[in-house]
Amino acid sequence: MENVEYFKDKNVLVLGLAVSGYNAALLLNRLGSNVVVNDFKDLSANPEAQDLEDKGIKVISGGHPLEILKKPLDFIVKNPGIPYSNPLLKRALEKKIKIITEVELAYRISESPIIAITGTNGKTTTTMMCEALLNENRLNGEAYAVGNIGIPASLVAQNSSKKDDLVLEISSFQLMGIDKFHPMIAVITNIYSAHLDYHNSREEYVKAKMAITKNQKESDYIIFNQDQEELVQLVRTESKAKPIPFSRKTELKYGACIKNGMIVFNGEEVMPTDHVLIPGEHNLENALAAIVVAKIKGVSNNNIKHAFYKFKGVKHRMQHVETLDGRAFYNDSKATNSLATINALESFSKPVILIAGGLDREESHEDLIPVLKKNVKTLVTFGETKNQLAEVAKKANIDTVIVKETVSDATQAGFKNSQEGDIILLSPACASWDQYNNFEERGDDFIETVKGLGLSI
């Protein structure tokens, strides 16, 4: 580990337990910091909280008492999901206490080069593609996919070496809490509008995304989507790193693109596009970004091909779950906004029964109308947005619109109203927090329901 002495005797508040907070607290304790953990939930029966207390770490739960800030603090490690509007954080900012997220902590101790991947959509799939490509026939070290995918970066960073790579999926929430964070390679898959309930404005959201490159130098790399003019301009004006574009729509002499059915990098053919086995034009973009990373890291075309032969996608992201009675079920629970659902629907040429709904973020979802008209025969809605999405479906002249309460009920209804050859797709276009802790739980509910349908046939 690097910078171990920096953390010794530091007074640190870890705000929010969860997986990243638990691991951050353990690491800081190991490094000799004086750690206090605070969570709004009552943790009196929480085994992780008990484990921390057994190690001498103070845990305060059941609220965010401002009295915590009376004792001197060197910095706060905050759970990314806690907004800066939280009264305790607002008071900390007034007191000029540094607030970071766990990825900053991981960067500070990491011996391994960091490849950081962000974007509105596609960052998880791109992260997993990069891990697969970098590990194909690798002779020294290993690439580890960490971060927003669910594996705390600090947990892996404390044990990885200079021979390894950390492939870090990083969200806008996490990027708002960086200070010295400095990836060797930064990837921005795309930028649209998302999480405006957290960021308050699109400008703040874009600023958070672009923070991925703020500490990069001329010797580093930034990989970006050439098909987005806004992103082209942002990279040009805000990054010092070497820019390498990728494009699905335009042939490029420099960077990665598609030409005559082949993926090409710097004019050299790498592999046919049909080697990307997961459906969707957006997944071709993810593959282009991952291939640029692989080429920078010296991975051969042959190893890139072999890695893609084996890459079958990521759970909850256009995941083929089962085919029952000629109906193919796909789990795209990670589609938490309209754009992700549009990309999913455009991946299919067969009729689609779409299952959608979730947390109401006061978005109109009317941008779904063109693709609903083109690709969807039946819409089954659920959750807080069920009635709103049903109205959108009517505007799109969808013949069959079914309103249900839960994913399970919606899945069963979709199956009952399907025919052989149909695609039954869970692609919610909404966050999961109205009924679930996260999109993974929502996707697992869908998977279990599909398995139950298989047993009843």
Q: What features would you describe in this structure?
A:
The protein starts with a helix and ends with a helix. It contains 18 helices and 20 strands. The strands form 4 sheets. Strands 7-8-6-9-10-11 form a 6-stranded parallel beta sheet, with helices on both faces. With 457 residues, it is of the alpha/beta class. The longest helix is centred in the C-terminal third of the chain and has 18 residues, at 439-456. The chain folds into 3 domains: 10-100, 3-Layer(aba) Sandwich (Rossmann fold), CATH 3.40.50.720; 103-310, UDP-N-acetylmuramoyl-L-alanine:D-glutamate ligase, CATH 3.40.1190; 319-456, Mur ligase, C-terminal domain (Protein-Tyrosine Phosphatase, Chain A, Alpha-Beta Complex). It has helices at residues 4-7, 18-30, 47-54, 87-94, 102-109, 123-135, 153-157, 172-175, 196-199, 202-210, 229-238, 281-296, 301-310, 338-345, 369-375, 386-395, 407-416, 439-456, and strands at residues 11-15, 34-39, 58-61, 75-78, 98-100, 114-118, 143-147, 165-169, 185-188, 221-225, 242-246, 256-259, 262-265, 268-272, 319-324, 327-331, 352-357, 376-382, 400-403, 423-426. The mean pLDDT is 94. Helix 3 links the parallel strand 2 and strand 3 (58-61). Helix 6 (123-135) crosses helix 13 and helix 17 (407-416) crosses helix 18.
